[in-house]
Amino acid sequence: MYFKEFDIRWNDLDANRHLANSSYINFAAHTRMSFLIAHGFDHKVLAKHHIGPVVFYEHMYYFREVFAGKPVRVSLELAGLSETGTFFEFNHNFYNEKGRNFASCDMMGGWISLESRKLIDLPEELVNLFDKVVRPDHFKILTKEDTRKFMKRPVDL
Asked: Residue-wise over 76-97: b if at least 16 C-beta within 10 A, else e?
């Protein structure tokens, strides 16, 4: 499991003086990018292949309030990956300084070509970078159908 630690800053709080919703999402996103960089997906590699990660959804679950003054640890587990690397799913847990879990986030995303702006399969050399990542017991090989499991579709005005 991968971990990233954060200090809660003044601008991470909301009007109730606890950690703001947007801060949870920002901490999770920062943890994901740190994880990807640590596993070989740095900016040079992404630029070389003209690709970038995109988020399909992030589902947050809040268990208790968190306030400024103590560090926060955010975990990341690779919960799923498609065979071609196009789709990925990460699970995050948020812990206080005592190791108590105060929030969780499930997210799914994919990779897009920065030229065509469409989803793409990862080059094999990049898919192979995920081979070094420990998979939890609940790891799943993802399919396109998994990206549609919530049946949300755009509805235009």
From this structure: bbbbbbbeebbbbbbbbbbbbe
pTM (two decimals): 0.91
pLDDT reading at 45 higher than 90:
yes
Chain centroid to CA 115: 23
Q: Both tokens of residue 26?
A: 């920002």
SS (H, E, C) the chain: CEEEEEECCHHHECCCCCECHHHHHHHHHHHHHHHHHHCCCCHHHHHHHCEEEEEEEEEEEECCCCCCCCEEEEEEEEEEEECCCCEEEEEEEEECCCCCEEEEEEEEEEEEECCCCCECCCCHHHHHHHHHCCCCCCCEEECHHHHHCCCCCCCCC
Single-letter code of the amino acid located at 66: V
pLDDT band, residue 58 (cuts 50/70/90): very high
